[in-house]
Amino acid sequence: MSERTIALVTGANKGIGYEIAAGLGALGWSVGVGARDPERLEEAVGKLRAAGVDAFGVPLDVTDDASVAAAARLLQERGGRLDVLVNNAGITGGRPQEPTVVDPGLVRDVVETNVIGVIRVTNALLPLLRRSASPRIVNMSSSVGSMARQEAAGPGEGQGPISAAYAPSKSFLNAVTLQYAKELHGSNILINAGCPGFCATDLNGFRGYRTAEQGAQVAIRLATLPDDGPSGKFFDDDGEVPW
Ligand SMILES: NC(=O)c1ccc[n+]([C@@H]2O[C@H](COP(=O)([O-])OP(=O)(O)OC[C@H]3O[C@@H](n4cnc5c(N)ncnc54)[C@H](OP(=O)(O)O)[C@@H]3O)[C@@H](O)[C@H]2O)c1
């Protein structure tokens, strides 16, 4: 078994996921680069290796059972365990998303990736995580999923665009994160949700005011929590985010 900490980052071919992979690699970790497109995967692994990261490719579409099972087999064969899983892959689903006009199919697609994809990947990899001395799971959420902040934004206003798909998918993901933490309480697995802030990536047409590298920092912090660290919480760079 590898002495190095082994991590997997989903959706790591670009944006915040790529920067999380780069940041974890800079710690000397072995980093599985999860990506659904073979060419984008190869390119990202090549770039990370050129930067000195011990990166390896993990073909992974989080919406596809067979792809996730194959990724679990690859990790089993490669390291026999997984120390850190960062569930980063996510989509907004496009527009319109206002509740009164949204296409229910769009909502279903967003939930399939942003929530069910996380459950699918996490459960497939739990047997490998359970073999780690200090397993950590980080779910990349968003403060737009904070019900408290949505309420505080006031009537007629959203925390981010008013949406029946993307923002509620992150509320759902937050709720699921908390439920995992409850079930895993008493084990050595810590699971938390992180918000990267509004970062300039493909996800928002590069309108964010933070860099993807800045957005990656919260995930790196939650991936490196000490054994007595929190679980079942939601954080951004400024501290805990209300549910
Ligand atoms: N950017 C922000 O301001 C912001 C704010 C709050 C939260 N977040 C969250 O941070 C995470 C990363 O976002 P980002 O801004 O870096 O977005 P991004 O640049 O669009 O990257 C998203 C990544 O997810 C991958 N992905 C999408 N669907 C997938 C699937 N079915 N299977 C595997 N990979 C899939 C994409 O792969 P492809 O290249 O193949 O499409 C890409 O690698 C997301 O969960 C997002 O919701 C972002």
Which molecules are bound in this entry? NADP nicotinamide-adenine-dinucleotide phosphate
**Total domains:** 1
Helix content: 40-55%
- Annotated CATH topology: Rossmann fold
Pfam family, one: adh_short
Family: Belongs to the short-chain dehydrogenases/reductases (SDR) family.
InterPro entries: CBR1-like, NAD(P)-bd_dom_sf, SDR_fam
Keywords: NADP, Oxidoreductase
Please outline what is shown here.
Keywords: NADP, Oxidoreductase. This protein has 243 residues and is α/β, with parallel strands linked by helices. The chain is built from 7 helices and 8 strands.
Task: Draw up the topology in text.
Blueprint: E1 6-9, H1 15-26, E2 30-35, H2 38-50, E3 54-59, H3 65-78, E4 84-87, H4 104-129, E5 136-140, H5 147-153, H6 166-184, E6 190-194, H7 212-223, E7 234-236, E8 239-240
Parallel strand pairs: 1-2, 1-4, 2-3, 4-5, 5-6, 6-7
Antiparallel strand pairs: 7-8
Helix pairs in contact: 1-7, 3-4, 4-6
The protein binds NADP nicotinamide-adenine-dinucleotide phosphate.
